[in-house]
Amino acid sequence: MRFVHFTTDIKGGAGIAAFRLHQTMLDYGLNSVLYNKYTSIEGLKCYKVNEAITKKRGNKLFVFFNNKLNGIIVRIYNNRNFFYHSGIKTNYRLDCLINSDDIVLMHWVSDFLDYKSFFENVDENLKIFFFVHDFNIISGRLHTLYDKMKNSNKLISFIESLISKKKIFYLSKLKNYKIIANSNFTFKTLKSSNCFENEKLCKIYLGLPITESVLISTMDAKKVLGFNENDFLILMSANDIDVELKGYDRFLKLFKMFQNYPDIKFVTLGKIKNLEILKNTNFSNFITWDFIEKSRIFSAANVVISTSYEETFGQTVIEAYANSTPVIVYNGYSALPEIVQHNKTGFIATNTDDVFNFILKLKGNLDLQKRMGDLAKDTYLNKFTSDIQLQEFLKLLNNS
Question: Which residues share a beta bridge with 264?
Fold first, then answer.
């Protein structure tokens, strides 16, 4: 029996989450493999999948107009500036990689999973677990409810409905599948969609391997990264920093509010396109996929902030917790307020003025920083390690 993971990439939030679970399985001696579009790491049973070479069948005129129609749909979506959107047809044949006794873990598979070939060719009794990292599983091309709720285009709404129904139709072909939400927020959202029977839904929090946390003090981490001992560092971490969904407008507003505080520095960890902000003396940006280096950056921060409008979980929070760093999040339609304990492991803000005032309070109280950081670390160890995530999954598997 193998555990077979599918994820579009091993980078980005969902890809990292998939790779972490896969690696934890290997550490426990389980037979786990991971397939993705871009990267092979032989020693870790991580394999790149090549596109299948298929001969297009059918009337050439039909194929031509079908391609034209798909191109028009993509342009319509692109013009709305959605965070991300993807179709259900790809050139990858993932069903060919599966054995009859495999346990399949389907993670974020945008532009990787071809619904038709996969669901029509796998055994209906295959055990398959869908890990929900966004809401594409209950949408059409869209991946976030944030985009879905702001959409006012009737044509897009019609397309979304058609594709969503087709997805649910494909999933209904399976008998032994489960949908795994990574938070109570995600679970409740999936349940309220009425797309799946309740017994198909369950919840398992994501986890972070203990090995990804570096034992280094805040002061030492600051020194290694080139900051002064008395600098108060505010860290924002995301795969893409300056995008609407991640609340970049909130981040910029906060950044401007602290312009006259030279000892308060803003640090971002992730890709950023706004080159103007990089010229500011109290702003630093890091880009790294190295877990040790990431841990050092989280350790150097006095506080981590997530300005996102929507998150199905929030791995940034547990990365901060693992390094004894408190976290600020915004209240709203997201899992973030569920993970942060208000005034204990961090702060849940209603608006940016709340964030501003809390940071000043935290900056002037080292005991509060330490108390929140210590409780954050305990919360991580007792609730959000990859070991706990794996044990919860194996328990679910045994009961399925």
Answer: 232
Work out the average pLDDT over 93-114: 96
Question: Is 22 found in the same domain as 169?
Answer: yes
Residues in Cβ contact with 361 at an 8 Å cutoff, skipping those fewer than 6 apart: 368
- Read off the CATH number of the domain in which 138 is found: 3.40.50
**Chain segment 21-72, per-residue pLDDT in tens:** 999 999 999 999 999 999 999 899 999 999 986 555 556 665 666 677 788 8
Q: Are residues 277 and 379 in the same domain?
A: yes
The CA–CA distances, whole Å, from 251 to 15, 181, 328, 346 equal 25, 28, 12, 17
Q: Which residue has the tokens 């006012």?
A: 152
pTM for this model (two decimals): 0.93
What integer pLDDT is reported at residue 61 of this predicted model? 64
Q: What are phi and psi of 181, to 5 degrees?
A: -85, 145
218 contact partners, CB below 8 Å, separation of at least 6: 299, 300, 301, 302
- Roughly what angle, to the nearest 10 degrees, separates helices 386-398 and 12-27? 80
Residues 9 and 112 in one domain: yes
> CA-to-CA distance for 83 and 244, rounded, in angstroms?
8
Confidence at 400, pLDDT banded by 50, 70, 90: confident
Running DSSP on this structure, what letter comes out for residue 142?
B
Q: In this structure, are 365 and 393 located in the same domain? A: no
Of the CA atoms within 13 Å of residue 206, those in its CB half-sphere come to 29
- Helical ranges in the chain per DSSP H: 12-27, 60-78, 115-121, 145-150, 154-171, 184-193, 218-225, 248-257, 291-300, 315-322, 336-339, 352-363, 366-383, 386-398
Name the token pair of 63.
């194929």
**Residues 158-203: pLDDT tens digits?**
999 999 999 999 999 999 999 999 999 999 999 999 999 999 999 9
Number of domains comprising the chain: 2
Burial class (CB in 10 A: 0-12, 13-18, 19+), 192: exposed
For the record, the structure tokens of 375 come out as 């409780």
Expressed as residue numbers, the domain containing 301 is 210-384
Residues 249 and 374 in one domain: yes
Q: Mean pLDDT, to the nearest integer, of 74-93?
A: 93
Mean pLDDT of the chain: 94
Calpha distance 245→334 (Å, rounded): 11
